[in-house]
Amino acid sequence: MYVCKSGHMAIRKARTGKKNQGANQSDTYYFDIKKCKVCPLRDGCYKEGAKSKTYSVSIKSTEHKDQEKFQNSEEFKEFARSRYKIEAKNSELKHRHGYETASSAGLIGMEIQGATAIFAVNLKRILKLLNEKE
């Protein structure tokens, strides 16, 4: 059972959500409303006139646990530190070089548009690096 900040134990627990539906289930804890009405810590917890007080805790699937473990790793943090550089380049491609929307129909047309946009960005980068050398 779950115990609130003021030390009151939940009176019942229920599992909500469907199994195997792609969304996480959660444990919902129900509290005695009579205790909540007179609780000194009710501000931000109990809303006046409410008929019930619940608290839900999401049950994470194994995929979510694995992802959370990966996000706390040093490898992920290293990727996150350099992500801004990649996002800046993607933004330049989309907004300055027309890679946001397809200008022609079909996969081949989009491949050509992507290749020319990337070529233009790379050419600009090469010219900038050449100017810095001089």
Strand order of the largest sheet: 1-2-3
Can you give the mean pLDDT?
87
Segments where pLDDT lies below 50 for 5+ residues?
none
Largest sheet: 3 strands, antiparallel
Q: How many DSSP E strands?
A: 3
Number of helices: 4
Count of discrete structural domains = 2
Helix content: 40-55%
How much strand content do the residues show? 5-15%
Using the alpha-carbon principal axes, give the shape: elongated
How far do the termini sit from each other?
71 Å
Supply Rg: 27 Å
Structural class, by secondary structure, is alpha+beta
Element order, helices and strands?
A: EEHEHHH
Question: What can you see in these coordinates?
Answer:
The protein is α+β, with helices and mostly antiparallel strands and 134 residues long. 49% of the residues lie in helices and 13% in strands. The protein contains four helices and three strands, in the order ββαβααα. A three-stranded antiparallel sheet has the order 1-2-3. The termini are far apart. The model has no long low-confidence stretch (mean pLDDT 87).
